[in-house]
Specification:
Helix content: under 10%
Strand content: over 45%
Radius of gyration: 20 Å
Shape: globular
Distance between the termini: 27 Å
Largest sheet: 5 strands, mixed
């Protein structure tokens, strides 16, 4: 059973995985992982499905591959998978486009590529495949068309814990990461600071800020393998940067990269891949922060613990299956890993 996404509840010791094309599968992982529930849905998922656990731990959001008048983003109950609510985006689906939409090349919202939560846990983040990013208030249901985009496929997002910066992982022919400063979250005020490239569209990787928001780590495909890269954020510079009055971010990064002092704050680690991919099965990798000083990377058939400051590999664990993504249980110090052979649990010493 190829698990490409999962959510996990540490209290129940259970995981839920959406399995392509249209299954929801519940696992008990209190001992050896075993399936304890499964339903078939009336719609298909993306090849890499979108699912997110909501803050109360009782509900989760899941999205179909195509939004239709019959099927949209669903809020379901953990215990019995029942549908509690449907979330429809403001102009989705099949409403007439506004002049603004036509000007920006924005079509009808029929494709959801990514779901997430803001660090404050108050908003559901919804990314259209080739469109915009929305905020949905989890208490009131109010929706904000947060970031208007139309150029590339929205593959993933990350917001720092202080909610000052947003990074959008975009995929066209190649992969890039667009950097925004959040000037006012609820007033749709974001300042585009620039972007950095890396990777290709055949890979879905990890993208995450450290718990203190001082470092960024991400994975990107490079020929025959995956790079795990991390750098320290110059928050004092990014918080005041304006592309209208100062140098573009990519020019500033070039200077940082040439600075020996800044290069000492950057590192990269390469992991070779030994399995194939295709249109329905992109390469995947993921990262979770264990604390501000260490992180865990899942790639290929291993989990690797690395120093956040130097990138040194501290320890590796053989998963004995190709890793797609993972979550971490901080109470038991176990990694719950979605692999091409189901759910695996790995104790991290």
């Amino acid at each position: 059973m190829d698990c490409k996404a999962l959510i996990y509840d540490a209290v129940r010791k259970q995981a839920i995985a959406p399995i392509y094309p249209h299954s929801l599968v519940k696992w008990d992982i209190s001992q050896q992982p075993r399936i304890i529930g499964q339903i078939e849905l009336p719609y298909d998922f993306e090849s890499v499905p979108s699912i997110v656990l909501l803050p109360d731990g009782e509900r989760f959001a899941v999205a179909p591959s195509e939004v239709t008048p019959e099927f949209g983003i669903e809020i379901r109950r953990w215990d019995d998978f029942s549908v509690l609510q449907r979330v429809d985006l403001p102009h989705a689906p099949y409403e007439e486009n506004s002049q603004e939409d036509e000007y920006y090349g924005h079509g009808k919202c029929t494709h959801i590529s990514w779901l997430g939560l803001t660090p404050c846990q108050g908003y559901l983040l919804v990314g259209e495949g080739w469109g915009d990013i929305y905020l949905v208030n989890l208490e009131s249901g109010e929706q904000i068309r947060w970031l208007r985009r139309w150029r590339d496929y929205n593959a993933a997002f990350a917001i720092d814990p202080q909610m000052q910066f947003l990074i959008v992982n975009s995929v066209d022919m190649d992969e890039s990461h667009q950097f925004y400063r959040i000037d006012s979250m609820l007033e749709d005020k974001l300042t585009y600071l620039g972007e950095y490239s890396g990777g290709v569209r055949c890979h879905r990787g990890g993208l995450s800020f450290s718990p203190d928001g001082q470092r960024l780590a991400y994975t990107a495909y490079r020929y025959q393998g995956v790079d795990l890269l991390s750098f320290r954020l110059e928050r004092s510079i990014l918080s005041t940067l304006s592309p209208q009055t100062q140098e573009p971010l990519h020019e500033i990064w070039k200077k940082w990269e040439k600075s020996s002092q800044y290069r000492a704050k950057m590192w990269g680690q390469f992991f070779r891949l030994y399995h194939d991919h295709d249109g329905l099965n992109p390469w995947q990798s993921d990262i979770v922060w264990l604390d501000n000083n260490s992180l865990l990377c899942g790639v290929g058939q291993i989990l690797a613990v690395l120093s956040a400051q130097t990138g040194e590999i501290i320890k590796t664990y053989d998963v004995d299956a190709v890793v797609n993504t993972l979550v971490f249980d901080y109470t038991s110090f176990q990694a719950i890993v979605a692999t091409k052979q189901g759910i695996k649990v790995v104790a991290i010493a």
